[in-house]
Amino acid sequence: MSFVERYLKNPYLITSILLLAVVLGFMSFRKMPLNLFPDANYPKIAVVLVWPGASAEDMEDKVARPVEKELATLDLVRKVRSSSRDEVAAVSVEFEYKKSLDSAEVDVSAALNRIWASLPRGLLPPRIFRVSDATVPVLTLAVYPRAGSPLDLAKVRQIADNELREALLRIPKVAQVEVFGGYFPEIRVEVFRDKLSRYGLNLSQVISALYAQNLNIPGGLLIRRKNQILIKVAGERLEREKLLDLVVARTPQGEIHLRDIARVKTLYTERESFFHGNGRPAIGINILRPEKGHVTETLEAFHRAFPRIKRQFPDLVFEIADTQENLIRTSVSNMIDALRDAVLLTVLVIFVLLARMRMTLLAAISIPFTYFMTFFGMWILGFELNIVTLTAVILAVGLLLDDAIVVIENIDRHHHLGKPPFRAAVEGTREIMLADFAGTITTVAVLVPILFIGGYVQKILRQLASVLILALLSSYVVSITVIPLLSQKILKPQGERNILERFLFRISEGVLEPLRNFFVRLFDFAATKRLLFIGPLGIGLLMVSLRQMPLVGRDLMPPMDTGIIKIAFETQANTSLSETERIVNRMEKIIRQTPGFIRMATMVGSEPGVISFGAERTPQQGLITVHFIDRFHRKENIWQIEDRLRREFLKIPGLRYVHVYDFGATPLSSIAAPIDVMISGPDPKILDGLADEVVARLHRVRGLVSISRNWYLDKREIRVLPNLERLTHYGLSPLDLARTIRTAFSGAVASVLRVPGEDGYVIRVRFPETERLSLSDLKTLLIPTAKGPIPLSEVAEIRAAQTLTVYKRQALSPVVDVLGYRYTTAITHLQDQVNRLLSDLPLPRGYRLSQEGEIKHMKESFGRLRRALILALVLLYFSLVPTFRSFVDPLTIMVAIPLSLIGAVWGLLIVGRHFCMPAAMGMILLSGIVVNNSILLIDFIKKARAEGKGRREAIEGAIRVRTRPIVMTALGTITGMLPIAAERALGLERLSPLAVVAIGGLFVSTFLTLLYVPLFYTLFEDLKNKLSKIRRRFSHE
User: Fold this and answer.
1) CB neighbours of residue 152 within 10 Å
2) Which is nearest to 580 in space by CA: 518, 667, 652, 513?
3) What are phi and psi of 134, to 5 degrees?
4) H helix runs in 199-355, sequence order
5) pLDDT at position 441 over 70
6) Per the record, what is one GO cellular component (predicted)?
7) CA 289 to chain centre
8) Cα atoms in the 13 Å half-sphere on the side-chain side of 630
């Protein structure tokens, strides 16, 4: 008794398991988190190092350089890059995917410990950050005071850093909350120079007095027989109102209080950053998800808790300035609609071609069983509902119906032989189940290499391949269990078709019969001109098609219109933050007037330790994220909006550059721009000249926009050059000068005024602003010495100089990057122009030019895909060998694969898509689909030959009989892919080339297969016969 017969006689166990899987699948579908794309960024560790008072040049030379050298020795490092500006160096280490973030963090921490003693004294402890897809905030809040509220932004910052942040961190699924926007509160002690001189004091004495009188000091332990008690001197008792009464010094004339030499203000630190939410000044708050968490889970938890949190802060206004929530939910909703349309269209096409209502109904019933089983598998594997996984679900529609129809048709054939429903179900299923399994395995076989290919390709396409494999295997299980069980009730021995079925049958036959006759006659003619059809026509057509690939162009991933625009900009060197804010206000006004505007978040500068807002920007650099309504509800595409904004921004004086680009302009966050020409070498001045020349040449590249470089050599600074002989005479060192200058002009933190339940107020000591504005203020600065105070000009020369705005390093060398963005032009078309224009650029010895943009990752990814395709073809061949018990027949069957490439290339060219990673995946998938048509032909021919028919008769019979199922299979699969090719969902532009390749390849190969597979069958058979004759001849001799 076969499995099918045992199951149909006692269906309860397996049916219960299947129904349980369906129920669990439905629950899994409802519970699965949503996302736009799978997490794909390389694991990265960022180290932020702060050295108060240090110049950008010192940060690069004395901090970033030695740290880079040590971190470059770590295992599985891909790239080490650093960015150094005044007082701050950010060093990032990017690792291979196989390196876990936990291991990377431990290795980086250990490396820093090894070299810490050799780094400059005064360097603050390093801050180490794990950078992953979870570092991207799920939501950005803009917080500002309500109208009429007594609060200002400094107080809002204080509330955000304390009570509000703590309330948000208590929300489940929220891993981190980061606050940004300047306005750090501080108590500023402004010491007057003339009063300081009158009393014979210096700034160091003021700082020491504040520090000594506001300090908790351990007093030891009081140890008793039964217990012990800590003794503490509670000296932290300064109060804001009594600060002026502090005794700074005692002289014979009496006590000198702080009020005698200074004034005290409660202000905020001089800002190096600011945040605007929807065009108005605010404090920004980023909500981050856990590393292993999901975007929508964190968002749902936030939305449940946030109304209660808002009620706790009635004086604050909260606005959402940035979030991908709407994009994700709209995109997934669009994908579900596309899936519905794909199912309906495919079922309709199958019904028209089958012209059997009951058979179509039974095939349609199998779809929810298959899909819910697939969703259950996805949930077990921890997948999300995103564009990639749902694309796989939609792609599977046509393939699933193929499995069902093959079994249904065979059961129906047994019905027509007069067998009762039970026997028809048993024998029809048993007869076809192994062949059906072989067809399923061929498609699965070509997908398996994607699961183990490694790199970025595996990260993006693994889920697509996994879901397709789950769907195909689920479909096979359903086709040999659910279909035969339900067929006993739904399928009946039928005589004549009803009126509708007869009408549809006549229409389909009216199309298919001429097609059969055409291909039979064409084969008869081609058989007499076999070498002509195989050589000049067949191979020639393939070569001509492949020669069109340069016209098609290549991308790593296609651009997409999500309605989100990023605007990165920089104002001229030495521009103050207030002037930068004025320029930003003009930019935001232009943005708000753009039709379709929804919201925006503006970040300028950076704050050490606030990694999600950006850690490398100077006070002249900023980023604006703008959301517009989706492309289905506006007239212009995102690139037209970008172009208009770019033209308007260029009219604003004070902007050095402005990059306007679409969200997802680069597939990975580690790719700075689509075109990134990196120049490396030891001398920044030479790098500066080379960068200018590269920028000038890239302006001649058609389709390249927003061209700029990532640093300039025009930042003004004042250099103090100590006279070592004079310093020695006065018993001073350069360090003494630096400390005095930094304290007077930037200020020094003397202590912290503690406030219960808050972080406290920093007490900063410095000169008033009016006494530190000019060069003469610096020259006349009094330096305390053992011989009395002397002006700075006595022991140092002071001169103006120009330096880099920021120091960039990569691969242990200074670098400058020239960046360029695009509209939708293929990367290879741009890169070809770039290479041609830079081919004769003279480079001094020791300087190198490299391409670090999308093209670099393309070469790696396409190399992996080539290996995957070769392995897929090998697995496909060896999966066919045991099925056909032949080493030759699989070669005949696989002839359909190069035929499909013809349609794939012309499909991309006609529709205007570029060859990219999803298109390459489409070709791999196509190779597993198109062979099924060849299998139908070869299987029929071999069975007909086994029954005693001649070769010609068997081939013509195969063409006539198999045309309908071949066309039905192809049209069903093509119809299911149409919503993807039509880009029916936001972000689906990323994967539409996959469907275009599959549709084009399947369409062309369907018709060419009916001719070329029989031709190659005759060719291989004739060759085999000739070889047999030769062997027999040699054996007789």
Assistant:
1) 12
2) 652
3) -75, -10
4) 203-212, 258-261, 295-311, 325-354
5) yes
6) plasma membrane
7) 16
8) 16
Higher pLDDT, 204 or 1033: 204
Yes or no: say if 896 and 1013 are a contact pair by the CB < 8 Å rule.
yes
Q: State how far the Cα of 624 lies from the Cα of 600, in Å rounded to an integer.
A: 7
d(CA 571, CA 557) in angstroms, rounded, equals: 31
What the chain holds in terms of domains, given with CATH numbers, is 3-35+328-556+858-1033 (1.20.1640.10), 42-131 (3.30.70.1430), 185-268+716-803 (3.30.2090.10)
Tens digit of each residue's pLDDT (9 = 90 or more) over 965-994 = 888 888 888 998 999 999 989 889 999 999
Mean pLDDT of 645-667: 92
Residue 232: is its pLDDT beyond 80? no
| Amino acid found at 412 | D
Please answer whether residues 969 and 884 qualify as being in contact, where contact means their C-beta atoms are separated by less than 8 angstroms: no
* Mean pLDDT of the 135-151 span: 93
The string of pLDDT tens digits covering residues 65-95 is 999 999 999 999 999 999 998 889 999 999 9
The letter for the amino acid at 779 is K
Nearest of 883, 941, 915 to residue 1001 by alpha carbon: 915
Rounded Cα distance, 722 and 184, in Å: 34
Which of 709, 683, 677, 711 shows the shortest CA–CA distance to 847?
683
Distance (Å) of CA 898 to CA 508, 861, 903, 905, 958: 29, 22, 9, 11, 21
Enumerate residues 6+ apart whose C-beta is below 8 A from 896.
930, 931, 933, 934, 1005, 1008, 1009, 1012, 1013
| Exposed e or buried b per residue across 700-735, where buried means at least 16 C-beta atoms within 10 angstroms of its C-beta | ebeebbbbbbbbbbebeeeebebeeeebeebebeee
Evaluate the CA torsion angle 88, 93, 94, 97 in order and state its sign.
negative
Burial of residue 465, with CB atoms counted within 10 A of its CB: 0-12 exposed, 13-18 middle, 19 or more buried:
buried
Q: Nearest 5°: phi and psi at 437? A: -65, -40
Query: Which tokens in the block code for residue 1010?
Result: 């009916």
Q: What is the CA radius of gyration of the chain?
A: 36
Helix or strand holding residue 583 (H, E): helix 577-592
The answer to whether 94 and 54 have CB atoms below 8 angstroms apart is no
- Tokens at residue 343, please? 């199912």
Instruction: Return the closest-CA partner of residue 367 out of 972, 965, 923.
Output: 972
pTM of the predicted structure, to 2 decimals: 0.88
Q: What is the rounded distance in angstroms from the CA atom of residue 959 to the CA atom of residue 715?
A: 76
Cα–Cα nearest to 916, from 1004, 992, 849, 967 = 992
Region class of 87: left (phi > 0), else alpha (psi between -120 and 50), else beta: left
Per the structure block, which two tokens stand in for 850?
A: 């490299």
Q: Which residue has the tokens 């030379």?
A: 61
**What's 63's DSSP letter?**
I
Question: 3-class SS at 461?
Answer: helix
CB 984, CB 339: distance < 8 Å: no
Cα–Cα distance between 266 and 653 in angstroms, integer?
Answer: 35
For 1010, half-sphere exposure in the C-beta direction (CA atoms, 13 angstrom radius) is 28
Beta strands 280-288; 139-145: pairing state: antiparallel
The conformation of residue 506, written as its DSSP 8-state character, comes to: H
Task: Kindly give the pairing relationship between strand 761-766 and strand 185-191.
Answer: parallel
pLDDT at 465 over 80: yes
Cα dihedral value 531, 539, 926, 455, nearest 10: 140
d(CA 897, CA 930): 7
- 991, 568 contact by CB (below 8 A): no
Task: Compute the residue count for the chain.
Answer: 1037
Q: In 387-420, which ranges are continuous DSSP H helix?
A: 387-416
Mark out the alpha helices in 3-100 (DSSP H runs). Answer: 3-9, 12-31, 56-58, 65-71
CA atoms within 13 A on the CB side of 719: 12
Query: Which residue, among 15, 30, 34, 35, has the nearest Cα to 376 in the 3D structure?
Result: 30
| Phi/psi at 256 (5° precision) | -105, 115
